[in-house]
Structure formats: C-alpha cells, structure tokens
C-alpha cells in the first residue's frame, strides 16, 4: 500500500513549473561558461538595490538581544500599529491595529486568503495579466477552487475590459483580485475603471483583494490610489510587504489590511484573524529581530514623509528616505531607456509602464516564427544568454509577450536588448 498523500493535494501540478525548467537550463548554461543575463526575477537586491541603513537597523536589533519568541515581546503589535500609521500617512486610508494582519510576505497573504475565503467549487476573478501565483500552480487549486480571469486592453494602456469582467462573474465568485499597480505590465488603472469594478463587487456583495505592493513605486508623478479610497462601503483586503519599496524581500514581512467600514466582513474577519494566529504558530511568525527592524524601518520612513517617496520632481531628499528616492530615480531612468529601446526594435512594441519594476513588451513575430511564447523564450536563452519571464505565465493575454525588469543598470539593459535585436533579425528576416 505505501504511504498515501492527503486527498486535498490531488490537484497540485506535479510536473516541473516553467520557472523550474528554465532556471535549470540557465544554470546548465552557466556551468558551461556562458554568461546569462537574467531579466526575469523581481528581486530588487539582485541588481544592487539593498538599502544599507535598514541592514544596519537589523544588525542593531540582533545585537540588542531580540532573539526570544515573537510572542514574548510586544513587537508584533508595535509593527501592526506602525503599518497602520504608514498606510494612513502614505496611502490615505485609516486602519485600526486589529485591521492589520502580518504574514511571511505577500505570498503568505495569498495562502491565508485561500484557506479562509474559499470552499470547493468557489472562484476568484482576477484581472489579467495577473501575477503567476494566482495561476494554475496556485495553492488554491488544492482546495478544488479556481481562478477565473478577465482581460485588459493593451491598446488602451491595459485598462480593464469591464464587459468581459461582468460576463465572468457568477454566484461562485467570492472576490475580485486586482494587482494594482500591475505586475507585469506596470499599468495604473483609471479611477473610472476602478470605481466600476467597485460597483460590480458591490452588486455581488464580495470583497476586492488589492495587491498594492508597487503602490509607491510610480513614475512621472503618477499616483496609484489605494483601493479603499475609491471603494466606499465595499470591503477591500489590501496586500503589501517590505519586498519592493524597502528593498528587503528576504525579510519576508508581508501584511494585509482590512477595509470594512460597514462590517460586511465581520464574520469572515473573525475567522481570518483566528486562522492567521494558527498560521503564525505553524510558521513561527516573523522572526523577532526582523519584527524589531521592520517596525523601526516603517517609523524611519514616516519620519521622512515631508519629502514624499513617489514625488521625484526636484525635491531634496531627507536622510531617512534617501535610499528609496535614489532607487526610484534610477528606476525611472531605466524605465525610460527600456521603453524607448524596446520600441526601436522591429517586431517589438511596448506600452510605457507607469509603475512597478517591469515592462511587458509584445513580440509580433512569436506567432509566425515560434509555436509558443515559451519556445521563443527558451531559444533566446540558449542562443543569446538572456532570460525573460514568458508572458503566458501571467495569463492567456500574456501570450506573445515577455516580462522584463527595470532594476538592472543601463549597461546590462542595453546589452540585453542589443542581443534581443540581433536574435530577432536572424530569425524573422
């Protein structure tokens, strides 16, 4: 007979993921001495964005002796209180301390939502292109629930197709997922589109799940409004973390904030908080030195609020936000270069990202010269030593696209796009 796994995992895909297969090929090429430019991973630290002052804050917390269980200290509640103040000050939304739930990264938020919101047969509706964690390899499929997608219009700056969204709704829909600003496109949706999404969610009496991890990484003075500011009495679950703005993805500090002004999620929120407590015990919570450092990092950012992070129009930096501002200035220069250079390449067109760490160009030749987007990415990797994220990972509307990064320096980006241009000339002419 042997040992049998739990039936709840019967739907988990056992074949290697696209990421696993491509990374294995990349590593094999590197073992053979080929230099590979990896423009697929959204880890800001890989390209030198590290925010040294926060590393010093973490070291100080360790030297101070914060090594006991997190539950033996008050730092969890202090961090939640500080995050609530941060969201109020930077995003314009008031939360009580009990509205803030800590998780190990935004990925931890996803898993907590899957566990508490969905029953077998339930659906979440995601606007795509969407983060691949909401795709077929998502943890939610282990619970016999699934993602239904609705597209966005690339020709209209990736604005949501609201007719398609409404048609995709059903009695099985338990929430609408927004990645805003969007990963992979860098789009910021219009207030009008977001308000209509709020209206649809209100009709079905379901929450909006708004992943706002890139909400303070915007360009050209653009503002990505936090969904609760537009939602009225429609419940919103906001997700965010320290991975991008604070440049500390390895700290695994994520959180969700519950916006529920009329108590429509009261019953659900009680269960969510209880499961979060159990989940915290199972994962030992966020490590105590990181709790201390994260709290101090958020306080440090609040102290520098007089010169806002997202406004780069000639405002002098303060000591407490210099690193974040410098990262944004560099990202905007790289965004400008990436958008211009990609659109110079025949067969490539790219919508200008308004936010995030990514661009999402379309390669018109893929349909003619390659069977699939993955085949194009794989051949490019093997021949030119460039690895992009294949667009189909982000949904069916990503077919024919790839996701590239804005985080590397200009020299790396220029070399990568020169290689891409040469590759396309060889294969399409």
Features:
429 residues, 4-stranded mixed beta sheet, Aspartate Aminotransferase, domain 2, 2 domains, 14% strand, 7-stranded mixed beta sheet, globular, alpha/beta, Aspartate Aminotransferase, domain 1
Please, could you describe this protein's structure?
This protein has 429 residues and is an alpha/beta fold. The protein has two domains: 7-49 and 319-428, Alpha-Beta Complex (Aspartate Aminotransferase, domain 1); 54-302, Aspartate Aminotransferase, domain 2. It is 40% helix and 14% strand. It contains 13 helices and 15 strands. It has helices spanning 18-31, 52-63, 75-91, 105-117, 162-168, 191-204, 228-231, 266-283, 288-303, 322-344, 366-369, 373-384, 410-428, and strands spanning 37-39, 100-103, 123-127, 146-150, 152-153, 159-160, 173-179, 208-211, 236-241, 254-259, 348-349, 358-359, 362-363, 386-390, 402-405. The strands form four sheets. The protein has a seven-stranded mixed beta sheet with strand order 2-10-9-8-7-3-4, with helices on both faces. Strand 8, helix 7 and strand 9 form a beta-alpha-beta unit. Helix 10 (322-344) packs parallel to helix 13.
| Oligomer class | single chain
Characterize the main sheet. 7 strands, mixed
Q: Order of helices and strands, N to C?
A: HEHHEHEEEEHEHEHEEHHHEEEHHEEH
Strand content: 5-15%
Low-confidence runs: 306-318
Give me the side-by-side strand order of the main sheet. 2-10-9-8-7-3-4
């Amino acid at each position: 007979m042997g040992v049998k796994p739990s039936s709840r995992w019967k739907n988990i895909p056992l074949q290697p993921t696209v990421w696993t297969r491509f990374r294995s090929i990349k590593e094999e090429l590197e073992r053979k001495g080929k230099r590979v430019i990896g423009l697929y991973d959204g880890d800001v630290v890989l390209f030198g964005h590290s925010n040294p002052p926060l590393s010093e804050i973490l070291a100080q917390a360790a030297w101070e002796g914060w090594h006991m269980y997190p539950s033996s200290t008050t730092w969890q509640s202090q961090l939640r209180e500080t995050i609530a103040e941060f969201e109020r000050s930077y995003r314009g939304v008031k939360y009580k301390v009990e509205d803030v739930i800590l998780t190990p990264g935004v990925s931890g938020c996803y898993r907590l939502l899957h566990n508490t919101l969905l029953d077998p047969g339930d659906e979440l509706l995601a606007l795509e292109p969407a983060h691949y964690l909401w795709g077929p390899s998502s943890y939610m499929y282990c619970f016999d629930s699934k993602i239904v997608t609705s597209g966005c219009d690339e020709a209209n700056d990736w604005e949501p197709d609201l007719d398609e969204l409404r048609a995709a709704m059903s009695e099985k829909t338990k929430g609408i997922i927004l990645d805003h600003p969007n990963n992979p496109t860098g789009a910021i949706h219009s207030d009008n589109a977001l308000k209509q999404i709020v209206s649809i969610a209100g009709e079905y009496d379901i929450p909006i799940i708004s992943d706002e991890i890139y909400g303070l990484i915007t360009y050209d003075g653009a503002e990505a409004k936090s969904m609760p500011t537009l939602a009225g009495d429609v419940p919103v679950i906001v997700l965010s973390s320290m991975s991008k703005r604070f440049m500390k993805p390895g700290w695994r500090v994520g959180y969700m904030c519950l916006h529920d002004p009329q108590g429509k999620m009261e019953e659900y929120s009680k269960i969510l908080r209880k499961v979060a407590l159990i989940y915290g015990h199972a994962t030992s919570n966020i490590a105590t030195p990181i709790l201390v450092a994260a709290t101090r990092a958020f306080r440090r950012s609040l102290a520098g609020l007089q010169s806002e992070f997202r406004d780069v129009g000639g405002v002098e930096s303060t000591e407490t936000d210099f690193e974040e501002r410098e990262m944004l200035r560099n990202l905007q220069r790289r965004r400008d270069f990436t958008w211009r250079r990609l659109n110079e390449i025949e067969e490539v067109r790219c919508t200008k990202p308004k936010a995030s760490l990514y661009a999402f160009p379309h390669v018109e030749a893929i349909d003619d010269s390659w069977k699939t987007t993955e085949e194009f990415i794989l051949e490019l990797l093997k021949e030119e030593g460039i690895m992009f994220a294949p667009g189909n990972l982000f949904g069916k509307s990503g077919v024919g696209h790839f996701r590239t990064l804005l985080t590397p320096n200009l020299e790396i980006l220029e070399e990568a796009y020169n290689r891409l241009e040469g590759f396309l000339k060889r294969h399409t002419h």
